[in-house]
Design a protein that fits this description.
- The protein has about 400 residues and is α+β, with helices and mostly antiparallel strands.
- The chain contains 16 helices and 13 strands.
- The longest helix has 21 residues.
- The protein binds 2'-deoxycytidine-5'-triphosphate and calcium ion.
- Calcium ion binds next to β2.
């Protein structure tokens, strides 16, 4: 069992996106009913409506002629997609500065896994910082939902609109969702909504308490995911497009242990292995995760994400060591497995700066050690931190494999 505890996921969505981009370019449009989609005498539908226009009942997807009936004084704009794609790129660039776990979900929305990103304080403070940056740099407002999973984060961002910031605390997901209309659950389209309403399901809470076989028989396999979502259960990861890469090493002990110097030496060894692999791929990592499996098989992970990518053994280890202390302060029991993973990989050299001589010096040393290890084997050099493991490396191959 892996307890993927403490995930912190943001859903960030720009408010009235197309309209807001037009308003940023022409401040005279601010505070007014504005519609992007085309002239009202043409065929076509509303793409985006300002919140002032929404007060008249205007919604995206509505025929322009109908929008005109509802609010003849609205300003109708043709729109220009290249402006929106440019704004979208700038928006994603800002978000990528906070976490490498960025999954764009459309031009103006993205999921961001910020687990372990403590640089800005609490998740709320981080979200505020993000909103301020978006405002200052793009002149756009964003709504952010914070939760332990994607689906709840998305609903939370939606519920606070516009300029919203809603955090759903871990453990309260189900209560948060329960009173909301069933149509607000992502994945529930018009057809599914009608099916559920025919079953007497009007709220997310009512779907959550429906027996699973009933859901399955009416909605098929997709109903299972919806039922899980309704219960606040969503294990989908935030997956950056393209490379979903990480490097990890773990080891199960022959005997469960709680001996700190030994655990640290093993951790150091795993960090060196991971660092060696990172450098051989010419990559650096922004996130370090440790995994601990306790004697009772409970498995926990703890992550730390940093703005500074690294491939230095020392930096990786110091981050991992901090996480080990934290994990053991929360549960101090015999440990049977330790693992280290680095992820959020970036190209090497991007983040190396001359005015940060310390990591650079370490990396230089690491690379020299890598060359020797390539030639004579990994165990040919022990750094001070892994000397404790010397006997294991120099022992018989069976001993070595049982440890590594
Ligand atoms: N869009 C579109 N046609 C639609 C829905 C949306 O062209 N039927 C475009 C215009 C929107 C953008 O996609 O500006 C983002 O869609 P959203 O659903 O996020 O809507 P908005 O950003 O306009 O409003 P908000 O997110 O504040 O509800
Ligand atoms: Ca939007």
């Amino acid at each position: 069992m892996t307890l993927d505890m403490g995930r912190c996921i943001f859903h960030v969505d720009l408010d009235a996106f197309f309209v807001s981009v037009e308003q940023a370019l022409d401040p005279g449009l601010r505070g007014r009913p504005v519609i992007v989609g085309g002239r009202p005498d043409r065929r076509g539908v509303v793409a985006s409506a300002s919140y002032e226009a929404r007060a008249f009942g205007i919604r995206a997807g509505m025929p322009l002629s109908r929008a005109y009936q509802l609010c003849p004084q609205a300003i109708f704009i043709e729109g220009n997609i290249s402006r929106y794609t440019e704004a979208s790129e700038n928006f994603m660039t800002i978000l990528s500065g906070y976490s490498p776990y960025l999954e764009p979900a459309g031009l103006d929305e993205a999921y961001l896994d910020v687990t372990g990103c403590g640089a800005y304080g609490t998740p709320q403070q981080l979200a505020k910082h993000m909103k301020e940056q978006i405002k200052a740099r793009l002149k756009l407002t964003a709504s952010i939902g914070i939760a332990s999973c994607k689906v709840v984060a998305k609903i939370a961002s939606d519920i606070g609109k516009p300029d919203g910031l809603v955090e759903v605390m871990p453990g309260t997901e189900k209560d948060f969702l329960a009173p909301l209309p069933i149509g607000s659950l992502p994945g529930v389209g018009k057809k599914t909504e009608a099916t559920l309403k025919a079953l007497g399901v009007n709220t997310i809470g009512q779907l959550a308490s429906l027996p699973l076989p009933t859901v399955k028989s009416h909605l098929g396999a997709s109903g299972i995911a919806l039922h899980n979502y309704a219960n606040g259960v969503d294990t989908r990861r935030v997956e950056p497009p393209g490379e979903a890469k990480s490097i990890s090493r773990e080891t199960t002990f022959a005997r469960d242990t709680l001996e700190l110097p030994f655990l640290k030496a093993v951790l150091r060894y795993l960090c060196e292995q991971v660092g060696t692999e990172l450098r051989s791929q010419n990559k650096q990592a922004r996130r370090v995760t440790i995994k601990l499996r306790y004697a009772d098989f409970e498995t926990i992970t703890r992550s730390l994400t940093s703005g500074e990518a690294t491939s230095s053994d020392d930096v990786i280890f110091s981050r991992a060591e901090g996480l080990l202390h934290k994990a053991l302060s929360q549960r101090r029991e015999l440990v049977r497995l330790v693992g280290v993973e680095v992820s959020g990989l970036t190209g090497y050299g991007k983040q190396l700066r001359l005015f940060e001589p310390v990591p650079w010096r370490f990396e230089y040393l690491d690379r020299a050690i890598d060359r020797i290890r390539r030639k004579y084997g990994f165990a040919s050099i022990q750094t001070g931190r892994t000397l404790l493991l010397k006997d294991i490396f120099t022992g018989s191959p069976q001993t070595a494999t049982s440890w590594l």
